[in-house]
TrEMBL record:
Residues 8-225 form the PPM-type phosphatase domain. The keyword Membrane applies. It comes from the Bacteria. The lineage of its organism: Bacteria, Pseudomonadati, Campylobacterota, Epsilonproteobacteria, Campylobacterales. Residues 189-510 form the Protein kinase domain. It comes from Sulfurovum lithotrophicum. GO terms for molecular function: ATP binding; protein kinase activity. This is Protein kinase. PROSITE patterns: PPM_2, PROTEIN_KINASE_DOM, PROTEIN_KINASE_ST. The chain crosses the membrane at residues 523-543. The keyword Amino-acid biosynthesis does not apply. Keywords: Kinase, Membrane, Transferase, Transmembrane, Transmembrane helix.
Length: 544
């Protein structure tokens, strides 16, 4: 679910006058899932707090990196069993008794589905349309006066059986995870009424009842579903995915003219005398939910991005197959355009402006392109003026997302090969490589093959070595964009765009590996010329 569709809050207070308690919580809205964990450490203070922290962090990291082939239920049960066993065996080895013990509440949101589990007496509540209900099940004694005695907890026994549940979500739902320190102090009516005010409000309300001297550690985490992910409707619609499509056949009124890409999934088509591009889902999406999710995300991005940088995209309402339609941009891919000769300096500057302004548009939506390269840029004309279009939507993703080495190797920033997320700086690197290539028909660090682990030790050749027409200021901009040292690379698009628009203010780029003479070649020549001229004058005067 996209980050803008969910709001979260979390807050904890230690009991009495203590600065730190045994509770621990974490809540994260990630690209595809949202995870929230609340743990209330029990037993000896230090060990209980440690168990709460370790359980929370382990589950958060494990669910983030869970195997895509596993169901959510299998993942949750497996990871809970793992951390339970680790803590129990460690307790037995170090203390010969159960010391690393904690309660657990866990919630995972994926699409419109809520997955939850609990062990112990920390709770999960849901409020919807005025109704307030407890979703978790307390693992505690039923006998009067024994309510605080746990019958199950993480680390209490070698094996654990969590209470597990699933529910569908609706827009406007609020979910509360809390330790017993909260629900023992506030009634269900107080909890329900305070949910919309946030976690801090609830915990502080409980604290005020005891003049800010709480009898127990108290924690609350609240998740509010602002709206359901619009991609769900796109995914859940029953649509045909075929292995092959043929020239001349008609799909929902669109007649297929010719495939545009070798994979036979992107076609030039025609409807009522107008040409379009139709892109079908990969055939593998029938069996592989990950591939289906990626295509649905691409369709959603294409429909969402209404700007002149991209072709207009639509999703026909009465489609029977899984595809989307783009306006046909008549032109030449930049890679093909520069096959015979590089672009002119003026066109190179326009290309830089286009890529940077497109990237600025995306970052305002918390997005990055992820695969900026010459193949994805179409060179076309508008009113006899050459302009550019970015034609690929498949790689567009949330900024700072961890997509490992997704993208094209020759355009990947060095840090991306070390699993760094996509940021403005990694996109600037790709822009720099694209400009370098467009103006020289070369890559700064050579062409990099898939699965290759390249070395970035050598400094790239200055673009002017391949194209003497490139002005010094533009060369400095390009070299700063492909700088391997993040401190020296542009930090944001606006910084690079400012220098593109203000050549006179561009600082000269000096290669750290070049000697003083190489860095100041013209100055050395001038000083040498003047020195020789003076020596010649002196020599002439001496002889006369």
């Amino acid at each position: 679910m996209p980050k803008q569709n969910i709001e979260t809050s979390g807050f904890t207070l230690a009991k009495g006058t203590q600065l730190k308690g045994d509770d621990f919580f974490e809540v994260k809205v990630m690209e595809n899932i949202t995870v929230a964990v609340v743990c209330d450490g029990v037993g000896a203070a230090a060990q209980g707090a440690d168990a709460a922290r370790r359980t929370t962090q382990f589950l958060m990291q494990s669910l983030k990196n869970r195997p895509r082939s596993w169901s959510m239920e299998k993942s949750i049960r497996h990871f809970i069993e793992n951390i339970n066993r680790v803590l129990y065996l460690e307790s037995m080895e170090q203390y010969e008794r159960e010391e690393l013990v904690t309660t657990l509440t866990l919630v995972v949101i994926e699409g419109d589905r809520l997955y939850g589990a609990n062990v112990g007496d920390s709770r999960i509540y849901l409020t919807r349309n005025g109704q307030f209900a407890q979703l978790s099940l307390d693992h505690a004694m039923d006998e009067e006066g024994m309510e605080n005695v746990l019958t199950a907890a993480i680390g209490l026994e070698e094996h654990v059986e969590p209470y597990y549940f699933e529910n569908n979500l609706q827009a406007g739902d609020r979910i509360l995870l809390c330790s017993d320190g909260l629900y023992n102090e506030l009634s269900q009516e107080e909890l329900a009424d305070g949910l919309k005010m946030g976690a801090s409000f609830l915990v502080k309300k409980a604290s005020k009842k005891h003049n800010d001297d709480l009898p127990d550690d108290t924690t609350a985490v609240i998740i509010e579903i602002k709206e359901l992910d619009p991609r769900l409707k796109l995914k859940e619609t029953e649509l045909i995915i075929r292995e092959q499509y043929k020239k001349g056949e008609e799909i929902d009124g669109y007649r297929l003219l010719k495939p545009l890409i070798q994979n036979n999934r992107t076609w030039l088509c025609e409807k009522k005398g107008v040409q379009y591009v139709i892109k079908f889902a990969p055939f593998e999406a029938l069996e592989d939910e990950t591939i289906l999710d990626l295509f649905v995300k691409e369709v959603w991005m294409a429909k969402r991005l209404k700007a002149g940088f991209f072709p207009k995209a639509v999703i026909p309402r009465k489609r029977t197959h899984r595809y989307y339609i783009m306006s046909y941009v008549e032109g030449t891919p930049l890679k093909e355009y520069i096959a015979k000769k590089p672009v002119s300096v003026d066109l190179g500057v326009e290309l830089a402006r286009f890529l940077l302004k497109m990237s600025q548009f995306l970052i305002k939506l918390n997005l990055v392109h992820g695969d900026i390269k010459a193949e994805n840029i179409i060179v076309t004309k508008r009113k006899e003026k050459i302009v550019f279009k970015m034609v690929d939507f498949g790689s567009i993703t949330e900024a700072y997302s961890n997509v490992t080495r997704a993208g094209t190797p020759s355009y990947l920033a060095p840090e991306r090969f070390a699993q760094a997320p996509i940021t403005e700086q990694t996109e600037i690197y790709a822009i720099g490589v694209t400009l370098y290539e467009a103006l020289t028909r070369k890559f700064p660090f050579g062409e990099i093959e898939p699965f290759q682990n390249p070395s970035f030790d050598k400094t790239p050749k200055h673009p002017t070595k391949y194209n003497a027409k490139i002005p010094e200021w533009l060369e400095s901009v390009i070299l700063r964009a492909v700088e391997t040292n993040l401190d020296k690379r542009y930090h944001n698009y606006s910084e690079m765009l400012y220098e593109i628009d203000n050549p006179e203010k561009v600082r000269p780029y000096f290669d750290k590996n070049l000697s003083f003479i190489e860095r100041n070649e013209m100055m050395v020549y001038k000083v040498g010329f003047v020195t020789m001229f003076i020596l010649n004058i002196v020599q002439l005067l001496f002889w006369h």
